[in-house]
Amino acid sequence: MNDPKIISIILLRAIAALSVCIVHIQMICDFHVNFIIDYLINVGQQGVVIFFVISGFILPYSLYKKKYVLKDFFSFLLRRSIRIDPPYWCIIALPFIIGVLPISLLNLNSVLLHLFYLVPFVKGTNWFLGVFWTLAIEFQFYLLLGIFFPFLIRIKANVSILILICINIICILSKLNYHGVIIEQMSDFVIGFIAFMAYVKRISLTKGLLVLFALSAYIMVSVSIKSGAVPLSVALFILLYKSQKEIKPLYFLGNISYSLYLIHFPLSLFLVGSIGSHVTNKSLLFGGCLLLSILSAYIFYLLVERYALKLSKMIKLSR
């Protein structure tokens, strides 16, 4: 029987991917209904935060279950690279193949910066597609987690959490706004990690909830209400969701969430660029882009992501 907490992760992935997808497609289609609907759609940008909190929880959980040690670092990175990179590489190529981006943007320097997620660290460079910035932050998290997880899990749980909270507060107080660098999103990963600690009972659920509420309150006051409230809501859902019922549409979207996240943007740009001027009904254009994005994501999952996932599982960590 499936673990209800893992089902909760799948449901959250579905919500996150669909939210981000709707926001971007609305922007690309220039589709507007009224102020209230536009505001609700715009809230979907928080789907990215949901993804970061999920990573802050599920990756430490996976390493904990596998009894990860530092000598597994390169195996861990290889495993994550095989899981994430082949679909990403395909989507790097896609907008050039379908004519969304000019071939003139392609050169050895720009390709290498994308392959190694270095765009945020080189002044004057830009991502081929805006959605790629989140993958760079995820990769930075892999590096930090792979190095420091053995230390954080070996010391006393209270000390580990205190260290993470102090790092989080330092990142907030530094006021450094480097888009695409993990400093900006540290709160999301830390909240996910604290949820993980409570989930595996390194700390009690009560203590975990108290810490989560306290840290989130600080973030709400120091940064913004949504910067604290959204990660907190995700962590609470992970810890408190008990149902084992698989909500099939969301379960389906959760399983293809990475493919949907990757493919919806270039595909929608292509569709709007190709037929947008011939479709006067913006709601029809919006709905068509959304449905075709989901269908294409499913096909992409079957042809590419599924095999990357299977191959990554062949990389074993030492026991």
Largest sheet composition: none
Portion in beta strands = under 5%
Shape: globular
| Count of spatially separate domains | 1
- Low-confidence spans: none
Summarize model confidence as the mean pLDDT.
93
N-to-C series of helices and strands: HHHHHHHHHHHHH
Distance between the termini: 25 Å
Number of DSSP helices?
A: 13
What structural category do the secondary elements indicate? mainly alpha
Classify the helix fraction into a percent range. over 70%
Cα radius of gyration in angstroms: 20 Å
Strand segment tally: 0
3D architecture notes:
The protein is mainly α and 319 residues long. The chain has one domain. 73% of the residues lie in helices and 0% in strands. It has 13 helices and no strands. The protein has helices at 4-29, 35-42, 47-65, 73-97, 108-115, 133-154, 157-174, 186-199, 205-222, 225-240, 248-255, 257-275, 282-312. α1 packs across α11 (248-255). The longest helix has 31 residues, at 282-312. The protein is globular, with a radius of gyration of 20 Å. It starts with a helix and ends in a 7-residue tail after the last helix.
Q: Secondary structure elements and their pairing?
A:
Elements: H1 4-29, H2 35-42, H3 47-65, H4 73-97, H5 108-115, H6 133-154, H7 157-174, H8 186-199, H9 205-222, H10 225-240, H11 248-255, H12 257-275, H13 282-312
Helix pairs in contact: 1-3, 1-10, 1-11, 1-12, 1-13, 3-6, 3-8, 3-10, 4-6, 4-12, 4-13, 6-7, 7-8, 8-9, 8-10, 9-10, 12-13
